Amino acid sequence: GPKVLQIPSHQIIDMGQMVTLNCDPVSNHLYFYWYKQILGQQMEFLVNFYNGKVMEKSKLFKDQFSVERPDGSYFTLKIQPTALEDSAVYFCASSLGQGSGNTLYFGEGSRLIVV
Amino acid sequence: QEKVQQSPESLIVPEGAMVSLNCSFSDSASQSIWWYQQHPGKGPKALISIFSNGNKKEGRLTVYLNRASLHVSLHIKDSQPSDSAVYLCAVSPMNYNQGKLIFGQGTKLSIKP
């Protein structure tokens, strides 16, 4: 089936440093998402992105977070500066269309540990 | 804010048994309800979705939706060891057409050979 690739799979970073999580969405998809999952907790929506713009973001999407997809390359989530509470698995997803009937395809996640 | 609750938290059944997983949500006007499967260390994989009241069958999976009781269930027939995973119920909130999903906490399913 369609694959979403995420790089890196794991990263350990010092608090206060910047981190960029990369996502290669399904090739013909137009809508991109980031979700956050803290160990033992449910997955939570962070942000969605279409046509170069953030469409919606949640309260978890702090000012230190930013997303972009320059020139159709990777869809990235940047955190600057990182905080201890940013430790989580970040899942990227993509879909062909919008609307509740469209399937979201998820990557395998980027596990971020902030120390 | 939409809330999604799943039960049970975990379930162990023998191979070949029928599995029933439950999910309740808080807004009857929610749009589609999705079931995702997540293996350890992997991302969620969409299994089946339902929008209208009633049931929907795909292969060994059947999902039942009752909007009046704010309840949806997933049934897996003839369970296999490869079905062992965490099953996530996800709801698309009303008025959100941007692919936002509200997830439950999941049910961990173990199928014993």
What is this structure's SSE topology?
The complex is a heterodimer of chains A (115) and B (113).
Chain A: E1 5-7, E2 10-13, E3 19-24, E4 31-37, E5 44-50, E6 53-57, E7 65-68, E8 75-79, E9 88-95, E10 105-106, E11 110-114
Parallel strand pairs in A: 2-11
Antiparallel strand pairs in A: 1-3, 3-8, 4-5, 4-9, 5-6, 7-8, 9-10, 9-11
Chain B: E1 4-7, E2 10-14, E3 19-25, E4 33-38, E5 45-50, E6 54-58, E7 61-66, E8 71-76, E9 85-91, E10 102-103, E11 107-112
Parallel strand pairs in B: 2-11
Antiparallel strand pairs in B: 1-3, 3-8, 4-5, 4-9, 6-7, 7-8, 9-10, 9-11
Could you name the key traits of this structure?
heterodimer; A: 115 residues; mainly beta; 7-stranded mixed beta sheet; 4-stranded antiparallel beta sheet; 49% strand; globular; B: 113 residues; 6-stranded mixed beta sheet; 5-stranded antiparallel beta sheet; 11 strands
Provide the structure class of chain B: mainly beta
Encode the helix/strand succession of chain B as letters. EEEEEEEEEEE
Number of strands of chain A: 11
Oligomeric assembly: heterodimer
Count of DSSP-assigned helices of chain A = 0
Q: Which regions of chain B contain 5 or more consecutive residues with pLDDT less than 50?
A: none
- State the helicity of chain A in percent bands: under 10%
Helix content of chain B: under 10%
Enumerate the spans of chain A where pLDDT stays under 50 for 5 or more consecutive residues.
Answer: none
Chain pair forming the biggest interface? A-B, 27 and 25 residues
The coarse silhouette of chain B is: globular
Radius of gyration of chain A using CA atoms only: 13 Å
Number of contiguous helices of chain B = 0
Over the alpha carbons, how many angstroms does the gyration radius of chain B reach?
A: 13 Å
Q: What is the percentage of strand-forming residues of chain B?
A: over 45%
Distance between the termini of chain A: 36 Å
Mean pLDDT of chain B: 92
- Total number of beta strands of chain B: 11
Major beta sheet summary of chain B: 6 strands, mixed
What is the succession of H and E elements of chain A?
A: EEEEEEEEEEE
